[in-house]
Amino acid sequence: MWGNALGWVISLVIVVATVGGIVLFQRHLANLTPPTDFGRDPATLAALELPTEPAALLPPRDACDAGPIYRQAVEVVLGNLDEYETFATRASDSDEAKGLQAIELLSAASDCSQMTLFTRAPHEVVNYGKKPELTAIKLAGKCCNRLATLLAREKRHDEAIKHYKAAFALGARLYEERLVLDELLTGLELMSESASGIAAAARDAGDAPQSEAFAAFAARCAQYRRTRVEPMWHAIGSIDAGVIARHTGDVFHVARRSNERMWRVEAILKLGRLRYNAARVADQQAAGRVLQRLSDDPDPIIRAAAKSARELTIQDYRMLG
Question: For residue 18, is it within any domain?
Answer without folding.
Answer: no
